[in-house]
UniProtKB/TrEMBL annotation:
Keywords: Membrane, Transmembrane, Transmembrane helix. NCBIfam families: GGDEF, sensory_box. It comes from the Bacteria. Residues 517-776 form the EAL domain. Coiled coil: none annotated. Residues 378-508 form the GGDEF domain. The lineage of its organism: Bacteria, Pseudomonadati, Pseudomonadota, Alphaproteobacteria, Hyphomicrobiales. GO terms for biological process: signal transduction. It comes from Rhizobium laguerreae. InterPro entries: Biofilm_reg_signaling, EAL_dom, EAL_sf, GGDEF_dom, HAMP_dom, Nucleotide_cyclase, PAS, PAS-like_dom_sf. GO terms for cellular component: membrane. Residues 169-221 form the HAMP domain. Residues 226-287 form the PAS domain. This is Diguanylate cyclase (GGDEF)-like protein/PAS domain S-box-containing protein. One of its GO terms (molecular function) is catalytic activity.
Length: 783
């Protein structure tokens, strides 16, 4: 390295001399040679002029001796080495030369004509030519110039030598010492320092190098100490630590690893770790390690004594590439944890009461069963079982009795299940059964018969149950697990609607009904958002004079494309989806606003408004909401009639009782709607503050029935209800009056009011207001 640096420096200096000094020196020699050549030419020119005149007379006289003598004189002059004299006639040719034989240089010739002045004038007699050697770069140098050049060369050489010596002493020597220290450090491993002290860059370099060596030496000591500590920690840490190389061979293990596994260090170092893993989990370990950088995997590890433990391996890598991949891994014994996880998993997917799968476990098994059916070329039947009257058992006999019945049911069911079948309790009294078979529909029907036989024997005294079963077959009815469960559920609900206690196979008509229901749900939501709901009004009249005493608000959904939609389905779906509260609030607001408009018509200021309320609408905020609405429109509370059905009162809910009482205290009247249907009981009239009884239209139609027995009983029931209601200060209204005969009969029975198509159809408030206004105007004109 030092020779390279020194040679480069020497080459740089020489290059500088060649580029800058040598051209100047050559130029100086060239100019000096030109000057000397000019001086010689000037001297020879003068000499030729003089000798040409001297030679004129001898040459005229052809005096060869004189010519020779003069030529000898000329050739002896300074730099001239040869003289030639010739006359024009060629009779005389004299040549004198002092050129040594060894001379092989170039000669420069200078000639002059010899003119002789005769009586007839000047005549050219001949010529004289002299020769002198051509001057080189150094030939024309004078002594003082040679001295100057010598001094110049000496100065340049002195500077050149000084630079080389200075470079060697101040640059090369410290670099050699630095190199020697580096080589010694590399070969011996110890930190050598550079012994060089100066205030220049080399001194600072040496100082920095020495500081770096000192710092590195200190860091090496710290690293060695840290390595010893890390080794101690590695071996003393109560964790199973081990390291693998790029070929998955064990390079190191901690003492705790050896203690936990039973191996000794010499026996495992160099072994492939995968060979210590059970064959069942070996591929998992290999694939995970190849695919992931810093893997986390759980495998089964085989100890020296042959026992197997579940271990969680967490690996962190320390390597720059695939060829030098090293890792530090910690291996944790999770045998107990895995066992606990398995127990928790079983508990998570198992129904704690019956021991069957729960919904989560069933959904997971359902996917596997479908895959197994595909692999075996079989079908899969899904039975959705829902118990009938089970809620009644819980409510009347207690939940403990219900749980006992469920356990007994499962025990009876298991007798009929094949090993390939799967049963689950989805929640409450809902169960699902999977039946794989070549002909799954036939197998499902057989199972339904067996399920029906289960319920022939009571589960306890007076505890009789039945079941509604929905059946869906994969792949005929469904292509996915979720679809299979959904369609069996739809089939079960279809059976529930058709009368319960039996089985129903899924068909596409159910899907159509489901789509229709979904469409109704969408229309309800859109109606609430886009204000499609209207509060139609149907007048309630007195039976004796047929004057309007009030109006019943009826919900209508006016679809922008489909027009008015049937309200029964909308109300049913709204109650199932709990949207009836929002719908009811809209109808209540609009109905009260319509009553306020009708109240401006003469004679209508005391009419009342009857509003139907669903059981779901009886929220604690209902009285305050109703009070705010009637207050905003200036309606007296007694003009509002809250219509409730027997279903609201049947369970004697304390909250509903409190809300009804609060509405009554506010001033609203209470009407019991559809009386005579369901679980009718006159005790409601005693337990609740009822003001109006509305007899259901089915009784109205039956009073003139063609069957005498039906007609007679219906009239007796209506007369009895009317009499008792009047005794309890309740007004009686008959619904669904469509004929004059029905009206006369009801009036004769003592009923107060009626409503129906005979008098008025439900109408939009605007149309009704126009009719009432026109009617009042006609009455006014007539009077």
């Amino acid at each position: 390295m030092n020779n390279s640096v020194e040679n480069r420096f020497f080459a740089i200096v020489c290059g500088a001399l060649l580029v800058f000094v040598a051209p100047l020196f050559v130029l100086f020699l060239f100019l000096s040679s030109e000057r000397a050549d000019k001086e010689i030419r000037d001297h020879i020119s003068v000499l030729l002029v003089a000798n040409a005149q001297a030679l004129a007379k001898p040459l005229w006289d052809l005096d060869e001796d004189s010519v020779t003598q003069i030529s000898a004189t000329v050739v002896s002059q300074g730099a001239i080495v040869k003289v030639e004299v010739r006359d024009q006639s060629g009779q005389l040719d004299v040549s004198q030369s002092t050129i040594p034989r060894s001379f092989d240089g170039k000669l420069v010739q200078v000639s002059r004509a010899i003119i002789y002045n005769t009586i007839d004038g000047p005549k050219n007699l001949g010529s004289i030519s002299v020769y002198y050697p051509a001057l080189g770069l150094f030939s024309g140098l004078k002594q003082e110039e040679v001295v100057f050049i010598s001094i110049f060369i000496f100065a340049v050489l002195t500077v050149f030598g000084t630079a080389l010596i200075g470079n060697r002493f101040f640059v090369i020597q410290p670099l050699m010492r630095l190199t020697a220290a580096i080589e010694a450090t590399r070969q011996l491993g110890s930190r050598h320092h550079v012994d060089w002290q100066s205030n220049d860059e080399m001194g600072r370099l040496a100082h920095s190098f020495n500081e770096m060596q000192t710092k590195l030496e200190s860091e090496e000591k710290e690293l060695k100490l840290a390595h010893r500590r890390a080794t101690d920690i590695y071996n003393l840490t109560p964790a199973m630590l081990f390291s693998l190389d790029e070929e998955d061979r064990i390079t190191a293990v901690s003492d705790y690893w050896l203690l936990a596994t039973g191996y000794n260090r010499a026996a495992v170092i160099g072994r492939n770790f995968a060979n210590l893993v059970t064959p069942a989990t070996r591929d998992k370990f290999v694939k995970r390690r190849q695919a992931e950088s810093g893997m986390t995997v759980t495998v089964k590890f085989v100890c020296l004594d042959g026992r197997t433990m579940d271990v969680l391996i967490m690996e962190s890598e320390a390597g720059a590439g695939a060829q030098d991949r090293l890792s530090l891994s910690v291996m944790t014994d999770v045998t107990e944890l895995k066992a606990s996880e398995d127990r928790n998993h079983r508990q998570a997917i198992t129904d704690h009461l019956t021991g069957l799968l729960n919904r989560q476990g069933f959904e997971a098994v359902l996917d596997n069963k479908i895959a197994a059916a595909d692999a075996a070329g079989q079908e899969l039947a899904c039975l959705f079982v829902d118990l009938d009257r089970f809620k009644w058992i819980n409510d009347n006999m207690g939940h403990a009795a219900g749980d006992t019945a469920l356990v007994e049911l499962v025990e009876r069911l298991k007798i009929h299940l094949a090993p390939s079948d799967e049963a689950a309790r989805l929640g409450g009294d809902e169960f699902a059964i999977l039946l794989p078979a070549k002909d799954a529909e036939t197998r499902a029907k057989v199972m339904c018969e067996q399920i029906a036989s289960i319920f022939e024997t009571p589960f306890a005294p007076d505890m009789h149950l039945s079941a509604s079963v929905g059946i869906a077959i994969y792949p005929h009815h469904a292509a996915t697990a979720a679809e299979l469960l959904q369609k069996s559920d739809m089939a079960m609900y279809a059976k529930k609607r058709d009368g319960k206690n039996g089985a129903q196979l899924f068909d596409n008509a159910m899907l159509d009904r489901a789509r229709s229901r979904a469409e109704i749900e969408a229309n309800i939501e859109a109606g609430l958002i886009d204000n499609w709901f209207e509060a139609f009004l149907q007048p309630i009249v007195t039976l004796n004079g047929r004057g309007i005493s009030g109006f019943e608000a009826l919900m209508r959904l006016n679809h922008p494309q489909k027009g008015l939609m049937p309200p029964a389905e909308i109300i049913s779906v709204a109650e199932e989806t709990a949207k009836i509260v929002r719908v009811g609030n809209v109808i209540m607001e609009k109905a009260v606003a319509n009553l306020a408009k009708i109240s401006r018509i003469p004679g209508m200021q005391d009419t009342y408004l009857a509003i139907n309320f669903s059981p779901l609408q009886f929220e604690p905020a209902l009285p305050a909401r109703l009070a705010a609405i009637v207050g905003r429109h200036g309606i007296r509370p007694e003009r509002i009639v809250v219509e409730i059905t027997e279903a609201v009162l049947m369970h004697d809910n304390p909250q509903i009782r409190l809300i009804v009482t609060e509405l009554r205290r506010f001033g609203c009247r209470i009407a019991l709607d559809d009386f005579g249907t369901g679980y009718s009981s006159l005790s409601y009239l005693n337990r609740f503050p009822v003001d109006i009884i509305k007899i259901d239209q089915s009784f109205t139609r039956a009073i003139n029935d063609g069957d005498d027995d039906v007609r007679q009983k219906s009239r007796m029931l209506i007369e009895g209800i009317t009499t008792l209601s009047h005794k309890m200060n309740c007004t009686v209204i008959a619904e669904g009056i469509e004929t004059e005969e029905e009206c006369r009969t009801l009036h004769q029975m003592g009923l107060d009011y009626g409503q129906g198509y005979l008098f008025h159809r439900p109408q939009h408030a605007t149309t009704l207001i126009e009719e009432l206004t026109a009617s009042q105007s006609a009455i006014a004109r007539a009077s």
